[in-house]
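Progress against Task 2.4 (sequence-to-structure conversion) is shown through the following example record, which the project officer requested during the mid-term review.
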Amino acid sequence: MAKLKLDLHDIYNKGGTIEKELNRVMQEAIEKKISLVEIIPGKGSGQLKKKVIRFLEQKHIRALYHRLEKDDKNFGRIFVHFRH
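Structure tokens generated for the chain above:
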């Protein structure tokens, strides 16, 4: 199974860059028909993870993917599943 991985550790304090990268990885998954995107906001205080989830739950973004999964074994990881 092909998957994309986006690690936000390097850009965690750059708000506009985070959304740009999230948009980019979502579009890449659609264009390449990749079924899974792994987003790593990291553990930290949880604020970045909340920001990522708010981004993914926007109506126009939500329409792009099938299912969102928070990793129950690793708090700092989110999976976005696509159905192509």
